[in-house]
Amino acid sequence: MAHSFTQEYFQIPVVTRAYTTACVLTTAAVQLEVITPFQLYFNPDLILRRYQIWRLITNFLFFGSLGFSFLFNIIFLYRYCRMLEEGCFRGRTADFVFMFLFGGTLMTLFGLFANLFFLGQAFTIMLVYVWSRRHPFIRMNFFGLLNFQAPYLPWVLMGFSLLLGNSIVVDLLGIGVGHMYYFLEDVFPNQPGGRKLLMTPELL
Q1: d(CA 58, CA 75)
Q2: pLDDT tens-digit map of 27-40
Q3: What interhelical angle do 120-134 and 153-163 show, nearest 10?
């Protein structure tokens, strides 16, 4: 059984495997009180003045303590990250990493002006948004209650957040950044006079 789990684990695409594992391990470390959320959250002052650079990354890795919210986010993260990496980004790992960097950078810049401490949920919504726009005709079912086309999925998730009493600012940020990537990568280059603006650096 252990061998089967290991085999299955290493069949997960590398970017999805690395990001999902980092999120699970970070949450486990907080749960075991090895670290605290106060060491992870996004704080521009501590980043710029005390050089706590790790916060630029760790704020994307923590989804809260173990519970429904964590499981909901980690399942969506794993599912849509993997479907993107195995689908439209198959054989294009560098381009997928560049999308991560593009989205993470824009969210971080927004975080400088907004009171957001953790951006992992926004990042997940971005992945969902890009996948949904690239698969517009897939029919979705949400908990057996709603049937809709894939492009509505990010908005359904935002509505679900609203029902749970959560702030939708994070969801709107993920949708906004996801739309920017989708527009610059898939829409603008195909417009009259348009061209490809997002170029993956040779370094990747």
Answers
A1: 19
A2: 999 999 999 999 99
A3: 150
